[in-house]
Amino acid sequence: MASDKASNSNPKVAEAEKLVKKADKLTKLSFTKWFPDWTAATPLYEQAANAFKLAKMPEAAKIAYEKAATGQERSSSPWSAGKHLESAGGLARELGNFDEVIDLYKRASELYVQCGKVQPAADALDKGARAVEDVKPDAAVRMYIDACALLEEDGRDQMAFDSYRSAASIYIKLNRYEDAATVFLRWGQAADKCKAVQSQCKAYLSAIIVYLFADNFNLADASYNDCSQMDSFFKSDQNHCAVQLLSAYRQGRPDEIKHVVSTSSVIPHLDHMVIRLAKQLPSGKVTAIVDETGHNELDEDDLR
Predict the structure, then answer these.
(1) Which of 35, 58, 119, 262 has the least C-beta neighbours within 10 A?
(2) pTM, rounded to two decimals
(3) Concatenated DSSP letters for 93-152?
């Protein structure tokens, strides 16, 4: 990458620097200049930003895009301001300034919301999250979930599915399985609202599998009891798979757990990250669960 201390022998760079100086002069207040002229300055910043970017000078380009965004915002053009902030966010990612990346994409999203563009607002959060998820996973998850919230509030629940998937994937990579299961449950609720039955059932089964992989049978069982209240899930093949898995765990039969996973017709259609966990079940020691009388809670008929 060329340094932002690129030689002024490049005429386009020299011209861009002149444009910035001229624009700065137009926006700087003085005793004789009481009001900044953003209308005249903004296109100068935009030209300079594009020139710096082409010249591989990301720091200078980022600053110019931010100033151009300020100009567009002052001119009541939040859409154009948001686009400039996204450009600045991409350059901040290139520079490794991840806190800036988060801030710039969030600000872009807020501007899109101002002009009623919910989908671009959510997309901006998704872009920012993808840019930082390897180095700031917690911040990335929050951005993905915020994107989901924006879409759901606007009645676009189905458009949130990819963001939920990305958030769950991060949690699984971090071995935060219970958090991942919670995301799957929220995904299932969103799918229920927009009548996306297959996605709903897959999400609920995924949550149960993730809880089981985390060796938390109680949460898996409680989630199953809640999800099975939904008629669409109760009648599904995914529900049948969940029943078989939970029954095998109650019986304390690791071989049966493996058999359920290997012969299931629905597990192979889940997201690959969940399939990978399912193939490793049981992940811990499996002990039969007995009731207060000392008998197994389920008999053999429950496994059929």
Answers:
(1) 35
(2) 0.89
(3) HHHT-HHHHHHHHHHHHHHHHHTT-HHHHHHHHHHHHHHHTTT-HHHHHHHHHHHHHHHH
